[in-house]
Amino acid sequence: MLNRITLALAASTALVAVPAFAQAPAAAAPKPAALTVQAVPPVPAELAARTRAYQELRSAGFAGWNSRDRSMLVRTRFGNVPQLHRVAGPMMDRQQITFEAEPVGGSWAPSGDVLAIQKDIGGNEIFQIYRLDAGRLTLLTDGKSRNGIGSWSKDGKLIGYSSTRRNGTDTDLYVMDPRDPKTDRMVAEVKGGGWGIAAFAPGNARALVLNYQQVTNSDPYLLDLATRQLTPIGDHKKDIAFGGAQFAPGGALWVLSDEDSDVQRLGRLDPATGRFTPVANAGRWDIDEFDISEDGRTIAYMTNEAGISRLYLLDVASGRARQVQGLPVGVAGGLEFAPWGELGFTFNSAKGPADAWSLNPATGKLTRWTQSETGGLDFSRNPEAQLIEVASFDGEKVSGFLYRPDPAKFPGKRPVIVDIHGGPEGQERPGFQGRDNYLINELGIAVFLPNVRGSTGFGKRFVSLDNGPFKREDSVKDIGAFLDALKKDAAIDANRMAVTGGSYGGYMCYASAIRYADSFKGALCNVAISNFVTFLENTQSYRRDLRRVEYGDERDPAQRAKLQEISPLRRIGEIKAPVFVVQGANDPRVPKSEADQIVAGLNARPGAAPTWYMVGENEGHGFGKKENQDYLFWSTLQFWQQTLLK
Questions:
Q1: Cβ atoms within 10 A of the Cβ of 494, count?
Q2: Where is 636: in which H helix or E strand?
Q3: Backbone angles phi, psi at 152, to 5 degrees
Q4: How large is the C-alpha radius of gyration of the chain?
Q5: CA-CA to 168 of 20 to 30 Å: which in 25, 356, 486, 505?
Q6: Strand 60-65 with 343-349, pairing
Q7: With b meaning 16 or more CB within 10 Å and e meaning fewer, what string describes 177-206?
């Protein structure tokens, strides 16, 4: 089989025909030392060379403003992992300012004099907080616990963060002046893994704290930083989700909330009474995020309308909002006003990777700050994703986005890969497809991105439809409804379908390969849950209770029995298609044991072909290092070649 794959991949660039007995073994691309593989064939060097342009795609994400020099902070990758860069002005050079072996994120203090960095090691998500000093990182946390930056105070004097320092599980709340690590102090000892400081009130005496319980429930508190007293805001017996929170300069507290609504609205929250007063809404769609201008007169907010981002500006005095014109169809986020009034954000679309942009609210002028490299490829002709809507088994309407190959270049019926998002509280949106553009534009494979029940972006009723073990497989049944629609599509080859997904989408990958074994010819499942009981028992303690709310409680006998029943590990004998399993060895969310046990079970089936298995020894919940991503992509192409294109 390997020889046929190698010859097929090499055929397009072969220059000289040589008798078979005289052919030397095909040269192989070097495998990164941190990757361990089983049954995965070597990657032909020719394949690596042929796809090189698609491996050199970059993106640039807006990460904030520097108030001192008016530069923009962006996150992009020039080496093996993303780093932080300074951009002095629109379309000017990206000047790298961090030089770490691991991916980093960070933000400037509003005062512009301190840059806080957050970084882990090998994808283990044991994040530490640092201060950047002349290109070097100064550790601000203990180096052992898991820490997460919450918010800066408006004057830049304090940074609030959460940490599992006390017991490894509960995310207690801390504040410090990062200029002096000795000022670090706990301000709230809490129970649970979803706590965070969302915003500091003017004067830094109080802060708004959110305790995330699940996607439909987060409880707000007002924290007195001196007394360490947490005062509940509103009725915590209700399931209400609160999104971003900010204090306006005058002290008014603005939040996103779905109180008395199926979707997130923007409004004011009274800390004394708990009353939420909605001010702006997007009809049946969520408002995803917002930011308040320095003078408090304008609020920018982003809506999520069937996955497409729309940007609005709210005049606080009049309560009137206007849509910003000129933003193309795509996905935007990361809103932040500069002190001088410019609004920064990140934007990407089907026609290009993510880049940093800004808006002048007064003139409405949109300005592009970065133009990321695309390996010399022109994606401007990429068609927009097609929205597909179907009725599922129970009449529930579900939707997804279909990326079609060019019918002039690839006439006739084409194979399709169903790529299922994780979360499960995630959402597929019509953005740039990165390396997958090679599948669409060079191999003629359609890519379908479904939003099954349980996805965000469609209201809290829809996101709750898969909760618990007894509703879990309803989302798998949604895939069947999509398959029925795809099989009726005149441009889709119903005999060449495959499935992939990561994290929860990896569970969906296994489950779909079982339920629709006669439809899928291959399954590539990444950092995937294979047994809900062992997953819940072995995921990191700080997130275990949060996941029990979503999936079910394995300590309850009835729920445990159902979780075992629906787990793919129990039904691997029903999988007919070849399987490719991918895992990070340091994954704190879905531990490597989930992959090990299903690979062992798949390989133990009588007469089964060996399961492809790739482990990133220096990776966590997904591959974050370019050399590993590249090799995984080349191996993925070989897998699809074998299952869909041979």
A1: 15
A2: helix 626-640
A3: -90, 150
A4: 25
A5: 505
A6: unpaired
A7: bbeeeeebeebbebeebbbbbbbbbeeeeb
β-pairing, 492-502 with 414-420? parallel
Q: What backbone phi and psi angles, to 5 degrees, belong to 564?
A: -65, -40
Profile the chain (646 residues) by mean pLDDT over runs of 10 residues: 32 33 71 98 97 96 98 96 98 97 97 98 97 96 97 98 97 98 98 96 98 94 98 95 95 97 98 97 96 98 96 98 96 98 97 97 97 95 94 98 97 98 94 96 98 96 95 97 98 98 97 98 98 96 90 96 97 96 97 98 92 98 97 98 93
Cβ neighbours of residue 516 closer than 8 Å, sequence gap 6 or more: 479, 480, 483, 499
> What does the pLDDT read at residue 593?
98
Give Dmax over CA atoms of the chain in angstroms.
84
Rounded CA-CA distance 570/227 in Å is 52
Cβ atoms of residues 116 and 131 within 8 Å = yes
Q: Which residues contact 584 (CB under 8 A, 6 or more apart)?
A: 123, 527, 592, 615, 616, 619, 620, 621, 622, 623
Q: How far apart are CA 500 and CA 577, in angstroms?
A: 12
**Long-range contacts from 113-119, C-beta under 8 angstroms, 24+ separation:** 113/68, 113/156, 113/179, 114/156, 114/178, 114/179, 115/73, 115/84, 116/140, 116/149, 116/152, 116/159, 116/178, 117/84, 118/147, 118/148, 118/149
Whole-number pLDDT of residue 24 = 53
Burial-class residue 226 by CB neighbours within 10 Å (0-12, 13-18, 19+): exposed
In angstroms, the CA 447 to CA 522 distance is 14
Distance CA 460, CA 453 (A): 11
Q: Which residue has the tokens 């597929």?
A: 428
Residues 73 and 65 sit within 8 Å (Cβ to Cβ): yes
Cβ(144)–Cβ(126) below 8 Å:
yes
CA distances from 228 to 42, 153, 186, 337 (A): 58, 17, 8, 30
Q: What is the DSSP string of 123-144?
A: T----EEEEEETTEEEE-S-SS
Residue 194 has phi, psi (to 5 degrees) of: -115, 20
Question: In this structure, which amino acid lies at residue 371?
Answer: Q
> Are 66 and 109 spatial neighbours (Cβ–Cβ below 8 Å)?
no
523 backbone dihedrals φ, ψ, rounded to 5°: -140, 120
454: alpha, beta or left? (left if phi > 0; alpha if psi -120 to 50):
left
Can you tell me the distance from the alpha carbon of 117 to that of 121, in angstroms, rounded to the nearest whole number? 13
The single-letter DSSP state of residue 432 is -
Determine which helix (DSSP H) or strand (DSSP E) holds 524, and give its type and residue range.
strand 520-526
DSSP annotation of 608? P
Evaluate the omega torsion of the peptide bond into residue 424 and state whether it is cis, within 30 degrees of 0: yes
pTM of the shown model:
0.93
Closest C-alpha among 638, 635, 639 to residue 31: 635
- Quick check: helix, strand or coil at residue 24? coil
Spell out where 145-241 has E strands.
Answer: 147-152, 159-163, 172-177, 180-188, 195-200, 206-214, 217-224, 229-232
Beta bridge partners of 76: 60, 83
User: How many angstroms separate the CA atoms of 527 and 619, rounded?
Assistant: 11
Which residue, 469, 474, 475, is CA-closest to 558?
Answer: 469
638 close to 47: Cβ distance less than 8 angstroms: yes
